[in-house]
Design brief:
The structure holds two protein chains of two kinds.
Chain A: H1 5-8, E1 14-19, E2 25-29, H2 34-39, H3 46-49, H4 57-64, E3 71-79, E4 85-94, E5 102-108, H5 110-135, H6 148-161, E6 168-171, H7 178-186, E7 193-197, H8 203-211, E8 212-213, E9 225-226, H9 228-231, E10 236-240, H10 247-259, E11 261-263, E12 270-272, E13 276-281, H11 285-290, H12 296-302, E14 305-308, H13 318-334, E15 340-341, H14 343-351, H15 357-371, E16 376-377, H16 379-394, H17 407-421, H18 426-432, H19 437-446, H20 452-458
Parallel strand pairs in A: 6-13, 6-14, 7-10, 10-13, 15-16
Antiparallel strand pairs in A: 1-2, 1-5, 3-4, 4-5, 8-9, 11-12
Helix pairs in contact in A: 6-7, 13-15, 14-16, 15-16, 17-18, 18-19
Chain B: E1 2-10, H1 17-26, E2 39-49, E3 55-65, E4 84-90, H2 94-98, H3 100-110, E5 115-121, H4 129-132, H5 134-143, E6 147-149, H6 158-175, H7 189-195
Parallel strand pairs in B: 1-3, 1-4, 4-5, 5-6
Antiparallel strand pairs in B: 2-3
The chains are: A alpha/beta, B alpha/beta.
Bound molecules: guanosine-5'-triphosphate and magnesium ion (MG).
Amino acid sequence: MKIDLNKLMPPLGLGYALLDPAWQIVECEMDVIPETGREAITGESIGSAFPELVGYEPILQQVSDGELPRFKMENLNREGPKGNLVYFNLEVVPTEKPDTPLVVVLSDATSLAQLRQHIRQQQYEMQLLNRQKSGLRGDSETLLGYSEQIVALRNLIEKLSGIPRVTVLIQGESGTGKSLVARMLHGEQKSPFVEISCASIPENLLESELFGYEKGAFTNATTTKSGIMETANGGTLFLDEIGELPLGLQAKLLTFIETKKFRRLGSTVEKHVDLRLVTATNRNLEAMISEGKFRQDLFYRLNVVRLVVPPLRQLGEDVLLLARHFICHYNLEFNKQIEDIDESAREFLRRNSWPGNVRELRNTIERAMIFCSNRVLTAKDLNRMQSEQEAANTRPRFDIPAEGMPFAQIEKEILINALQMANHNQSRAARLLHLRRDALRYRLKKHGLLSEENDLQEQ
Amino acid sequence: MQLQKKICLLGMYSVGKTSLIERFVYHRFSDHYLSTLGAKVTKKSLQISASDGQQIEYNLLIWDIAGEETENKIPPSYLLGAAGAILVADLLRPETIEALPSVLERFKEINPGAAVVLAGNKKDLLQDIESDSKEILRLAHQLKLPCHLTSAKTGCQVDSVFSALASSLLSRDEANQVISPPKKKAKTRQAKDQKR
Ligand SMILES: Nc1nc2c(ncn2[C@@H]2O[C@H](COP(=O)(O)OP(=O)(O)OP(=O)(O)O)[C@@H](O)[C@H]2O)c(=O)[nH]1
Ligand SMILES: [Mg+2]
């Protein structure tokens, strides 16, 4: 019986090439893989239509001679017309006809391959990130990125962390990860790492926090307390926002650096501690010196080694790597399965100037992921959050009518709003309002909003 | 004289196999990582002088094969008929260097006479080239294979590693007298196919 391959194969979604004993194509139909079809011409040798089969001539012979039942290769890639990848499977099958002993059968494998590629990509990226994270030491966090600046910074930190007592000044815009750098410098040592921000505490409190005090040193000093200098003994003391340190304390800090000694408030006993001092600022200390707001002698003492943490907008493609990292992170936290970011989102990430740096990127991804119900984040997901926030920043959130309105009503409206935004998912709505889920449910119940629908949707 | 040769790039995931081919063939590089699934064949020809001064043109069929992991083994069918291989490691990931001996073993099982060279890639990321390249150079010495420190990003040594493989192919072809002026007409179908 003569089988007409041309009638049989294409309807099955298969392409084929019938070969003569010299492995030249006698007949073919390869539209199933358009990119293959273009090159395959009747009369050509199989090797020129299929570079994938060059070197396989002995195998073809074995199949033709019946030594091998058939021969298959899966997931061969070709570049499609739009630069996309097309995957196909290729199988060499004997025909038992002396004139045309072999047929090469082709099938498109793109959809399944794309899925498998995606899974593998995620798996490898996770492994690489984990590796990067643990690369320096233990499981500690690390600066992620492959840009020259980040690689150089990481290498420098690695070197400095091996020199225990050297004083380091970290400079960088806010949100760039200065305190992460400080922790990386400290490393995974068992010794203490103590961190305090000079901007967050009033001057007199900061002094007692730093140096500690004796009972009776001042009105409220009812007990003796050691300061964080002592706590950090043997380890690292990280003073964030050092530019905000008041001048009085600057002098005291300078004395400490020079002598390694200090006294608790209200004490005459000198204490000696041995620690690594790391400071950080987003201010231009040199400018502050010329304005008389920062002591030059202290600056020289702090600026033994200076590390500059670059702003996100200078890190090129690292913004994509970081975005993917945060996606992995929030996938776990929110139990989501967002797989990737699309081209529009990549463009958005690259173009944004990120004044708030990595912190802003992280928040943007977090917000986008709370609302995204697809598997891929788009520019719209990222952007909507920003424009909503901008809008929210420029207009008052609630208009209270001149005659006033009951607070309960505002509360109810907010709850309804949050439920709508969260697609009636109570946990998500609770997160939006910074409430625990049971606290949200209590309020929903109070306003009669705990309908069956809300409860059902929750399951 | 023209000869067709299949060569494979092998090594763990993300060491830069695809990037080395992109650099060698298209002179481009991307920071974006798209992990390869399956295999992709790219053609490129390379000229080399034989010892008798004859110009040989190798038409290379370069197989970019997905990085091998324990759960994703390379199907042996991809390796059949290869005349050579470049085994690639990422200089910053020691485990990718450690993985090479077993990759070599499996490749040689299928292609015992094939030429092999090593590439320690991502040289541009190294801070201390001497200490970071020690491992792969030691391995190359132990396996008696040529080794190049490459960067697909800067292009450094990329042409050299392919040329090194081509000259290994050439010495094999000379030893097997594939290249010396043909006395008899080649008879096998394979040789006929290769000449085109
Ligand atoms: N800095 C630097 N990065 C590189 C170099 N070569 C590759 N890369 C990057 O490393 C990542 C992986 O490169 P690929 O070429 O895709 O690696 P592969 O070996 O083909 O990986 P699989 O296909 O998964 O097996 C990409 O992000 C590349 O941009 C290099 O020489 N220097
Ligand atoms: Mg690849």
